[in-house]
Design a protein that fits this description.
Layout (H helix, E strand, L loop, with lengths): L2 H7 L1 H30 L4 H49 L3 H7 L1 H43 L1 H47 L2 H6 L4 H52 L5 H27 L2 H13 L17 E11 L2 E12 L3 E6 L5 H6 L11 E4 L2 E2 L5 H7 E4 L10 H6 L7 H4 L5 H4 L18 H13 L5 E5 L7 H14 L4 E5 L3 H5 L3 E6 L2 E5 L4
Parallel strand pairs: 2-10, 3-8, 3-9, 6-7, 7-8
Antiparallel strand pairs: 1-2, 1-4, 4-5, 9-10
Length: 538
Amino acid sequence: MNPKKLIIKHLNKIILITILIVVSTVLNISGPIILKRLISENDSDSIELFNLLIYFLIITLYYLSLYIFSKLQTNFSKKFKEQETLELYRSVFKMDYETLLKSQMTYLVSRIKSVVDSFFSIVGQGLSRILALGITLVTIIIIMSTYNKYLALLYIIVIPINVLGFKRINKKLTARSSELQHVCADNFKNIISFMSNYEYIKQAQSDEVLYQYLSEYVTRIENENSKLQHYAKTIGLFLEYLLKLVEVCIFMFIVYLFTKGTIDVSVFIMLNLLNSIFYSSLKSINEVNINLRDIKASFNFVNDLILQNQEVDNGNLVLQEVESIRIDVNDLKYGKNLLIQSGNLNAEKGDKVAIIGASGVGKSSLLKMIPRLISSNTTRILINNIQIEQITLTSLRKKILYLSQTPNIFPITIKENLCLENTNLADKVISLKTFEKFNNLENGLDTLVVEGAANLSGGDRQKIVLGRLMNSNYDVIILDEATNSIDEETSDELIQKVFEIFNDKIIFIITHNENIAEKCNKKYKIDNKIIAEVATNE
């Protein structure tokens, strides 16, 4: 992603906004010129009245153009930010699984908000304003040159000094801004994590420990923000001071020309008004430059973290149906830790396969490779005797579902959670005894799930996820301790129902529950870094 592509993408809106700004700029400069005519032409009362009416009309049109510009820009801002935010979210969806885990979603979402805001600062504001302000400066210099070439020369000298000064400052601001974005997103993520632990917060014997951690996070954010703001404001005030000195000097020079009789009172008033507009425009350019300091850091974040960590899909075969799966394990590692040294696993259509073993031996890592959430250069996976890398990711994941022990629950209604990708909620789900509890709630299945699913127990969350599974259609189901928060009787009922619904499909179950393992026709055990099939009664 780069600024050029972003500008081309929204070019129509940018052109329209630019036209409005140029119109308002022309009207703004026209005011002092008309006022000069109003003062200098005293021959006819009618002409004087006409100029007066024209002057007030220009002022009215100027503020009307600003109103239209403001309304248009507000609408553009809304649509731009919605579109670009959702596109970046879609890019996040396509990031590789391990980078997502390391980056953490709250951090990414926080950064994306500041990134989109900075994108709009250049597309919806910066470019158009700089163009309009440039037109203003050039026009004023031309007008000044018709009255005094030295005035025009002073203005010409001031512009590059001002621009180059801020350009140098912005290099430092860009680096500090990038650090600020990172610090804010990282600590905001930690604050959200802390504040999400409702039960602990309500029952803590003392708030002091929580306050201490939260205080550290808030202090880091505000310290970084304060340092950046102090630096920017200090330098900005210094440059503004220098510009003010030059503005006063030029004002005094205009006064000198007036006292010498070189210009009359109407020109004197016009030049002073234009002088004020010139420095106001120059100050606005500086403000735009400061506001654009986040742009480079934002594009670097998108390109370096999001776009460079997209999943690689070199597959060209579309998976129609899963008939068999074979995994040949060879030195499967998590980081530098060797999990499984060797062994193989086979499953065919209709198989129910239990994966057992102590915690941390690599059960989850092994099965996450089937939907290609993680990958290994040393372990081979064949689906229908085809290497998994030859199959497109999209078609693979339409046929394979991995459910972890941490349920994926969303802040929507229970019914919407159950339906998610299938809008029709099947009777086979609603009729289950385990879902009676949800039907008996005040709002039934229309009960809204609050943030973090805090109004649902861990078991209820897992029931909803399994209900969603029953309402879907996959060829391969991977259950990673997906019922460990549910009582044994209910767990048996749900697993049995899953087996019935997906009777002719492949189901893998990671479990420590012997009753569930015994329901499977195959059982593999990971022990001493070896995976091997064992008897179902072992």
